[in-house]
Amino acid sequence: MSLTLNTNVPGINARRNLLINNGMMSKSLEKLSSGRRINRAADDAAGLSIAENLRSQVIGLGRAVANSQDAISLIQTAEGGLNETHNVLQRIRFLAVQSANGVLTSNDRRAIQDEVSQLIDEVDRISATTTFNSINLLNGNVGALVDTDDPVNSIQGMVVGDVGVGGTFSVSVNAISVGKLQVQNSELFVTIKENGDPIDATANTQLQSISRFQDFGVFLGGIDSVTLTMSTDASNRISEVQIFATDTLGELANKMSLAINDPNTVQDLGMAARISNGATLVSIGKVGLAPAGGSAGATSIVVTTPEPGRTLVYGGEPSILSALGFNEIQTAVFPIFSITVQDIGEGTIPTRNSRVYGDRAAGLIQGVDLQFRTTLDISISAVAKTTIQAYQVSQVVNNSLSGPDGFVIQVTPRPLSFQIGPNNGNFLNTQISDMSSLSLGISSLNVSDQFIAQESIKTIDVAIGQVSKQRAALGAIQNRLESTIANLNVANENLAASESKLRDLDFSDEIIKFTSAQILTSSATNFLAQANALSNSVMTLLR
Prior knowledge:
alpha+beta
């Protein structure tokens, strides 16, 4: 090697190696101080990309576990509400069984009905107020939205299960059979002359003058008024009729008619308010039989229900019930409807046809029950009359609308969707049906009559089964979520381990590298000093 003065090649070489060793030591110090093998993309470009993907999965899995735990909390809230609904339904069933027993009086059953009405209101309160993070859980909002263009609310849609993809449907309804009204007549009303001869009462005869009211002591002992209660299986309302001794038979009939249907108040039974308005619901009739000594065509009160298939029952003071002595002369029978449901949205669901006996159609629209008033396609004529035995009663006719009554039902799914994984598509959907009294079929529950109470037990059993089915579905979802959490935790552990292998520093290996770089740096520094000293050899030659 030549000896030069202008260019110190050995010094340059030593300096270059010193800088390399300094860089190696600096990187080792950075890794050792951070604990990470990859601090920047230059450390391991491919490794950084893989590690970031794994990191997103780990973070997503952690959030998915928390999501699943939140979902369990929501489900437990809903299930808690349904548990109380179950308790209420069991109490209602207990009361129905009690009311069906023949040892009770009308007043007893009236008290039972009062409690049943309160319990039904409690079912609706639970349905309306059971919430989680301001999300209503039991009112059908987390199942689907059902909307109809029906202008008079004679048809309703109730969410009872998974509605699938939903859709828009045309519902056409025709009455095949108009059914039968319940027609009741009272005992015969007469007054007795001093000589013992009976005289038929008229609409203008005061109640206190009628022999049956005297025989059963309705207004004895200074009592000038009694209360008659009226109820129906069409709703859980009870309408009270205040009867005075000075009321005439015609005034009593009018009070009873307004108790059944009065468009100007909500204290009536609310039966077919628009359709039956003006019809003769309670009238003074003449029957072909009379008590011994009485003339043919003795006076009676005739009561006609304004809705086919519905039953009227009476309660209140035993004396007034005995005096009126209502007997059923025609059994109420529900009408039969022909219902056609056509998919007018996507058009992917086949048209369905069904005959429905009564006021509720299931299975025509997935997850939705259609609730009808039995007057949907039926009316009572205020003029036309028909004769049943010796009674003139209002005639049942088809309404004036031509063709089927058509409605549009729109069903929009609104499922509860839980994000239970780190990636798109990792969700779990469930739905909670409407748990209101209307959807459960108990909104019109009536136990104020022994035989209606016996029938109501079947309705309550169906409601209990519906709540049990929903609770079982929620329990199954909770079990799935608990399994999901266990699976997510295992996946989270393994993915975190994989990311650690790529991103975290192996200290034992890096210490070796750091020590080597540190020694080399020290050595390079010493030899750089010696390389710089080589130039002094030129001075020896110049002497």
